[in-house]
Amino acid sequence: MRFKWAMSLKFKIALIFAFGLAIAFSINLIIAAKTIHTQKEEDVEKVLTHLLVESNDEYISSVLTPSSDLNFLYTIPHNMMILSDSEVNALRFMISTNPYRTNEKFIVSSIKLANNYYLNAISDHRKIDEATYKYTQVLIFRYVVSLIIILLITIVALDFYMKPLEQLAIKTKTWKRENPYDFVLDDASSEIKEVSSAFEGLVKRLESYRQKETELFKEAAHELKTPLALMRSRLDVYEVSDHYEKDKFIADLGQDIERLTRELKNVLFLESSDFEESSTIDIIHVFKMLERKMDILIQRKGLKLELPTETFTVVASEKLLFKVLSALLENAITYAREDTIVEVGCLPLERKVWIYNKIGTEKYLFSSKIGEKILKRLRSEIGFDYKIDQNKDSFQIELIFFPA
After folding, report:
1. 350, 351, 401: which is closest to 379 by C-alpha?
2. pTM value?
3. Which fold is adopted by the domain 277-404?
4. Where are the domains of the chain?
5. What sections of 180-273 are H helices per DSSP?
6. What is the C-alpha to C-alpha distance for residues 131 and 118, in angstroms, rounded to an integer?
7. Per-residue pLDDT reduced to its tens digit, 149-163
8. 3-state DSSP call for residue 161?
9. Residues 6+ apart with CB under 8 A from 94
10. Checking CA distances to 166, which of 18, 223, 319, 402 falls within 20 to 30 Å?
11. Comparing C-alpha atoms, which of 48, 24, 50 is closest to residue 128?
12. What residues are paired with 96 via a beta bridge?
């Protein structure tokens, strides 16, 4: 994908992989160098022991003491042949009363002679260190080449497995609303397919909200024209007519403003209804909360609110369900005939609840198309169907909730 290289996911994965390989190679290099160095020390010690044994058995005919001249040991053909093919360096022979002991800079081998003296052969580490250094260089070269090859293979593999992400990015950038949703990816891993599927679902949901919003505001623009036109007409009539009393004009205008306010509340209600969590809610408990909230309005109109004793639960957004039932109950109370009963009924087995009221003089009882729009839009999100039964005397709205 066309990212800045240092910020790309491929680079970060390759960097972590290279760092891990480098650590593994470094540990392996240290162990290998230490092993070869120890092995060569043991080989030199074996060579020295072989020299001493062969020299003592084949070439030493006299008794050796600490004052004896040992130069003849350096000229023995057998010894010279063995030394030329080994890492022995700066060889020294010496006679001592005890096996010779030295520091780690030298390698020593000793044998006991017949006169109880010890013949010692001593070598330093220079050739061993040089051989180990050369071996380490060869290993480093091999490891670097191997690391480069592995990283190239890794980058190619990452590029292959990340191509579906590039396809997803291209399809997202080039997608247009009039085109069908096509987020199918070629040779994608299960994780990338999940991302693609989730992304497709998100795009569909956002597009659905966009379409709903477009429809909503088209409907709102149409519905809001009615009260605004009425207000304009009343004002025109009031200005040209001497028979249109001021008190009547103010009362009518107040009703128009109240209707306009309701329509605006409905629009704002729909706009804030998305992306809310679901929980288990007791349906009648919500109505009891609403009863306390609307108690003043109920008393002012002399109404009686009857709530059932039976109930059932629904799984939905509590905030959203509360808003819907609040709007429906407020609608019933607002337009109910004074001194009548507003009934809330419930059939738990059928998962049904209804609100019934006698109609007062208000002619706009739930006639708003935006109010209908609320129910149509939210019934799928909350999970219910509805039915409105209305005549000149009464109004009833019935909600049937789907099983959880």
Report:
1. 401
2. 0.46
3. Heat Shock Protein 90 (3.30.565)
4. 5-130, 175-272, 277-404
5. 190-240, 246-271
6. 30
7. 988 888 888 888 777
8. helix
9. 66, 70, 100, 119, 120, 122
10. 18
11. 48
12. 118
